[in-house]
User: Fold this.
Amino acid sequence: MNITIIGASAGIGLEAVKRGLSRKHSITTLSRSKIEIEENKSLKMILGNAISRTDILNSIENADAIIVTLGTGKNMKTTTLFSDFAKLIVEIQSENKLEVPFIFVTGFGAGESRNYVSWFVKMFLKYFLKDVYADKTKMEEIITNSDLNWTVVRPGRLLDKELTEKYRIENKLFKGINIGGINRADVADFLIKQAEKQTEIKKYIAISEN
Assistant:
């Protein structure tokens, strides 16, 4: 199938590219930076901006599923990247009547899940990532009130370990949910499998190691 990954130059996005290719999909990426990966005939890379209508339309042409892994890297300053993108993709969906799966990555601590993080994570979000997570929450609100076929994936603390395909997902918040670390490669595995078959449509998914 044809999968578009928006925000694919590093982290979960890059891992999703690798996982998608390993599962024999055709991958189109949209990122501002060149992706450091071996050339592959099934990979089409578009350098562009996630808040450019033209660049988004080019990247999602013929897509069977769209994965959004936007990030700000180490920049913790106030941003509108996530909400600006959400507004634009909702407009594009409305104009083009897109019915494909949209899988968005935010983070455990966005939206209502902020009430279920540990004390330490709560302090970290409050003092370091407050503004970034505020905009991620805005993105969630915009897309979940749209007609998109959305799934929101909220991983816990991201780790750089090998793919295991063994992880825990929760589609409801509850006291003691205990969302801890999770390999970026395993988050990517879940994203690609949801692109293949969207079993968690219009749900918020927390993902953690078993």
